[in-house]
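From: lab user (bench 3)
To: helpdesk
Subject: output format question, protein + zinc ion

Hello, I'm new to running complex predictions and I'm not sure whether the block I got back is the full result or only part of it. Here's what I submitted:
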Amino acid sequence: EDFTAFLQALPKCEHHMHLEGALTPEVLFQLAAKNHTTFPSDDPAFTSPATLKERYNHFTSLDDFLHYYYIGMEALVTSSDFEALACDYFQHAAADGVAHAEVFFDPQAHLSRGITYDTVLSGFMAARHRAKTEFGITSELICCFLRHLPASNSLQTFALPSVQASFHNKQVIGIGLDSSELDFPPELFKDIYTDAEKLGLKRTAHAGEEGPASYIQTALSTLRTQRIDHGIRLIEDPSLLHQIATAKILLTVCPYSNVLLRCATSIASLPIRHFLSAGVQFSINSDDPAYFGGHYILDNYLAVQDAFHLSLDEWATICRAGISGSWCCEARKVVLL
Ligand code: ES4
Ligand code: ZN
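Helpdesk reply: Thanks, we reran it on our side. This is the complete output you should expect:
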């Protein structure tokens, strides 16, 4: 049976995509030419968009991907570059039937290159406005902190007046934690999460992607996150799995990402059936679609269907969990439910 039309029509919520991860090799080369950005001369992958795309098929780990991800974003300079990047994502989201998107961005990776926070934010805000008026897609922004940098750098960034202003005026509703996971446990970032909770911000963190299930535990207990990004290694700790099911913590699972970064051997090997039978709430997401085979959210839904042959009822359960676990207003949830 062909589930494409059904899965496209479901009112999907996306909770785990990095806007910088929507930068395709084609747009990367165009922006680099416009902004006079140079690529590493010793890496033949940067010969053309085609060779770069080919290299993206052979990531060996999260860090191997992140190397290209951070080089790629050097081509983003002006507010209109950030707007075009996010518009490109929202166009795909609309075609895939996304109703609501909560998207990540990495301010430290831009501040370190001399790009101001307001340059990034104004571009993304313009794109969000267009997504709402042109496609009816509601969206929220989540500011992520980079765990491979010293926690002091995250604290300084969090405290910037422009960053604090974006929290206060609700242009940014929450914080996340991303980048290299192994050797950077969640508790290193306790101070930011404590401050974020005091400000009434939503909180999530990447955990249990490459790192152990104990990182999921400390993200929940020490950072007091309300969601867990990835969380696939939760399967290694049955008692924690039970606790997460009871607390209705949403996991934001990214099937193609996990396979392409070698965190899972195949989509069929992901613990989707275990999560469903244990009542663990999860959503299905694209993570960095331009880097992961050009697979946006609908491809991820279709791949899960191919691997697990879920029933209409099971899809309804997944879809409702995504709506309930969203950080939009209650009225929007009622409309989507
Ligand atoms: C990321 Cl897949 C993934 N994991 C951790 N950090 C990230 N930043 C962008 N994509
Ligand atoms: Zn991610």
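A quick orientation on your result: Residues 117-135 form the longest helix (19 residues). Let us know if anything else is unclear.
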